DNA sequence: ATCCAGGCTCCTG
DNA sequence: CAGGAGCATGGA
């Protein structure tokens, strides 16, 4: 059975090799330790669960109509994907899950041009040496990415994670494995059906509640989708997203960076970015927006990656 | 206590 | 059209 399945999978999923109940992909230039640190940075995260001892992350994802739990070990030279709740994953599920991981960790991107650029940049030079192999971790679902940017506006990450936890555990779906609950972000359809009061009960502000429901309606009615955005230029993406009530330049660029994966998206107004620059430059005050824009000229093409690497410095 | 958190809209003058 | 109030909550 396994031999047959092995032949079946090979060739279908190029980079991934099937061995027994596991799928393995050899990796280079992936900084697993820092990826796991980023994934595990907040205790209130409910959409995945990191286990630093076995260097793995567990996450429930939706494949077609099915909810599938995946376990991904991130080792030095390879990724190991397995399905804790499935004895015989179908080819369709294996293909979708490996595709998910490839995109989640931006595995197809060659970071060498970014390293070259950073090596010539006084601000990024040491940061990029320190975290080399860190890749932008995606928020794959457009609705989740937009929601997260709305929840993150103005307030601290702690409060934002608290809002997300309440939203997800109140209106999302979950699967249970070994007595642990793994959550999926609620669907746009579900959130579009809510009223403002129901979100206010979860400590959302009036505004945040209105924004979230509005975005949910746009996605649920397919007036907005990831496919239409992905074919746009960076500027067009920003224009389209900032036309949505509740989505300003910061949120738009956050979504473009984390979900649409444009490597040059740049959340200029981001407080985390400001604090990271203050820290890296060892200054007593946060830099001005004008200064940051000036420095960022040298990061052109890779400003999203520059931002993600700078964020990483805040966790230490 | 006061200020600041991975901002945005809307209302003033 | 620039500038500022208001949002709601938790941690320093």
Map the helices and strands:
Elements: H1 2-9, E1 17-19, E2 22-26, H2 32-39, E3 49-51, E4 56-63, E5 66-74, E6 78-82, H3 91-104, H4 112-119, H5 125-131, H6 142-151, H7 157-171, E7 173-177, E8 180-184, H8 188-192, H9 196-200, H10 206-220, H11 226-230, H12 234-242, H13 249-258, H14 271-280, H15 289-296, H16 303-312
Antiparallel strand pairs: 1-2, 2-6, 3-4, 4-5, 5-6, 7-8
The protein binds a DNA duplex (13 and 12 nucleotides) through residues 149-150, 152-160, 162-163, 203-208, 211, 245-251, 254, 267, 269-275, 311, 314.
Explained architecture:
- With 316 residues, the chain is of the alpha+beta class.
- Among the domains are: 8-108, TATA-Binding Protein (2-Layer Sandwich); 138-225, Endonuclease III, domain 1.
- It is 47% helix and 14% strand.
- It contains 16 helices and 8 strands.
- It has helices spanning 2-9, 32-39, 91-104, 112-119, 125-131, 142-151, 157-171, 188-192, 196-200, 206-220, 226-230, 234-242, 249-258, 271-280, 289-296, 303-312, and strands spanning 17-19, 22-26, 49-51, 56-63, 66-74, 78-82, 173-177, 180-184.
- The strands form 2 sheets. A 6-stranded antiparallel sheet has the order 1-2-6-5-4-3. A two-stranded antiparallel sheet has the order 7-8.
- Strand 5 (66-74) and strand 6 (78-82) form a beta hairpin.
- Helix 6 packs across helix 13 (249-258), helix 12 (234-242) crosses helix 13 and helix 14 crosses helix 16 (303-312).
- The longest helix is centred in the middle third of the chain and has 15 residues, at 157-171.
- The mean pLDDT is 95.
- It binds a DNA duplex (13 and 12 nucleotides) through helix 7, helix 10, helix 13 and helix 14.
